[in-house]
Amino acid sequence: MIDYPLVEVIEGKTIILVPDVEAFRKSPSSFPPSDAPVFYNKRMEINRDFALALLRVYLKKEHKGDEFLYCEPMAGSGIRSVRVAKEIDNINVIINDRNPLAVELIRENISQLNLSEKTQVYEEDANELMLRFSAAGKKFDIIDIDPFGTPAPFLDAAAQAINKNGLLAITSTDMATKCGVYPKACLRKYASQPIHTWIGHEMAVRILLGFTAITLARHGRSMNPIFVQSTDHFIRCYVIAEKNITKAKNIMNEMGYAAHCTNCYSIEYAKGIINHLSVDCPKCENKRLIGGPIWLGKMYNMDFVIELQEQLQEDKANYGTKKKMQKMLELIMDEVKAENSNHDIAFYYDIHQITDKFNLISPKSSTVIKELQKGNFIATRTHFKHTAIKTNAPIEKIISAIKKAINT
Prior knowledge:
By secondary structure, the chain is of the alpha/beta class.
């Protein structure tokens, strides 16, 4: 029997009971979702909306005759999985959480929404559940890894349990670790050295993608990233896991290292599982911060992003955060176009940071972009940071463009 306060919320097309997290707030500065007996975070609605949208696009592109098998091994309140079961046809949903109170709430919602025929609910360790299904020959077509903190301990099991060409969705909220605040923890969890500068959020995504690629390769699978997002306190990566040992070997060629100079602000990166970047900055001879190994391949699949935009236009009623999603997708599409140019473009330059460093007025990013494009450089906005741009221009050309933009 559920003996704690619940509230009814609407996400997408689903009306669902969740913990009234404000009833568990211990202090004005506390984080109520973690204080509640079952984890539910309203701020992650955009995460769930993107998950449903990407899932719809994936199912449309996959054209599989049989029913799809979806698994969320750490479901918390179960709101994502329940939405999948309620809103998506031709899918069977496995929902798991080791918290008995969470399982009780999930079953209550499943019963009220008459979803018993489409769902199975378990109270097990996440890794044990995935490995048990894998050992029984029941591979999942979609696995959604959404832990509180690092997803690293769950990716080996997911790599074994995901079906051929299956969709693996991964959330990470341990941003301080991958952004370089806790470098030793990042090395321990992801076997990668982070960089603690303004490029931290994209560095975090590339660390997670790199770790995922290596984990999948260890199990004879290659990784095809289709979408990433960075929002507030979390990052999210969506990849297709292909069963191909040759591709798995070749995917290692997309790993590499990055160097960021904290003096002149130049950024350099190079592919290769062994680092060949110098600690000494070739532009100003200052000591640079070097991070890696990280993923330096593409982060997006253009076809998926285009269809994702179309999905939002066609079915706006499904997404409560559609305005934020559309705005983010506009920025991401700029990044995708730059990524698909004939130039390798990774990381971004923060205009505000550069102008502060060189005692300049901060112009509009759009004006700086126009100036760089006049010089035949690729330059775009980025969803990682609204004050930043992505470009293949060297730092001296960026500073020159900023000065020209100031005088425009």
